[in-house]
Amino acid sequence: MDAGAPRRQAGRSSGGGVLTWLGGLVSLSLLFGMAGWGYQIVMRDVSGVPVIRAPEGPMRISPADPGGRRADFLGLAVNAVAAEGTVARPADRLVLAPPPITLAAEDLPGAQLRRVIALRERARDMPESSTMFALPPGKGVESAEVASPVEPFDGSADRGLPPARGEEMQVETSAPGSADEAGDGQAGPGEARVAALVSADGEARSQFEGADPGEVAATGRGLRRSLRPLPRPEPELAADALAEAIARQLAGVDDIEVPLADLAPGTALVQLGAFASAETARQEWRALAARFADFFAVKRRVVQEAESGGKRFWRLRAEGFEDLSDARRFCAVLVAQGANCIPVVLR
Question: Which residues span the membrane (predicted)?
C-alpha cells in the first residue's frame, strides 16, 4: 500500500466536516429566519391593519388657469344653488346684462334693411332738426310756448279725420310785415314745424278748455287709450265666468243612463264611486265625463241602488266595455289621473 493514502483520506474527512458545519449553520439560520418571519406575521394580524401616515398637502391641485374655452353663464348667482345647495350671498358689484346679439345691417332681411337705410338717409337729410327748439325770441313764436312743445295726436288713420295740422297745414305765425323785421325774411323748416305744433296745441286747448270730460270723450277726439292701465276683473267675476264655462262644457256631454235591469249578468263594468244620493252620482258622472271626455264618449252611465249595514247608497258605474281586460285598461287611465275606478263584473 502507498503510505500517502491515509494522509489524503484524513484531508478529505476534514474538508467534509467543514462543509457539514456550514450546512448546519445555513439550516439553523433558515430555521430561525422562518420562525422570526412567522412571528411577525402573527403579531401583525393580531394588532390589526398597519396605519399609513397620509402625505402632506392635497391629493390633487386644480390649475389656476386651466385654459380651453370657458363655458357660458359662469359666475351667476343661480349656479350656487346647484353647486353648494344654498343661495349665494348678495353680490358686491352689480353689472347689467350685455345687450342681445343682433344682426348687422347688411345681414338683415330685405324689408328691414330697406327700412334701416331709409331711416339713415332721413337722419342725414335733417341737419336743422337739432335747432328746431332753440329759436331766438321774437321770431313769430313765443319762447314760453316753445319751452314745452306738445305733439298733437294723429288718429286720422283710425277715425277718418283729416291729418294733423302740424303735418300738411302751413300756419302763419307773424304779421305780413314781420318777415322783413325778423332779418332774412325766410323761416327754416324747423321753425315752421314748431310754429305749426304750437298753433295746433293752442287751438286744441282753447276748444276743450272748461269742457266736461264726459263731453270731450263723447266727441271721439283726443287720447284713444288711457295712460293708466285698465283695472283687472274682480275675483268674483272671474269665478262666475269659470263656473259658466264649466256649465257650458258639462251641458254638451251625452247624458245616457242605462237601467240595471237591461244589463245581462257577466257584463264588464267599472265602478266610479258610491254616493249618498242618485243625483250626486249623476253630478259626479258629468264631472268625470267633462274631465275625461275622450274616454267617456262611448260609455253609458249605470246608477245602482244598494244597501249595506242598514244604510242605502247608490253606486256609480260605467258600461260599454268589451271584456274585463278592457275595463281594467280604462281604470288604469283614470287611476293614473287621480280618479277612483274599480273594474267589476255584474252578477
Answer: 18-39
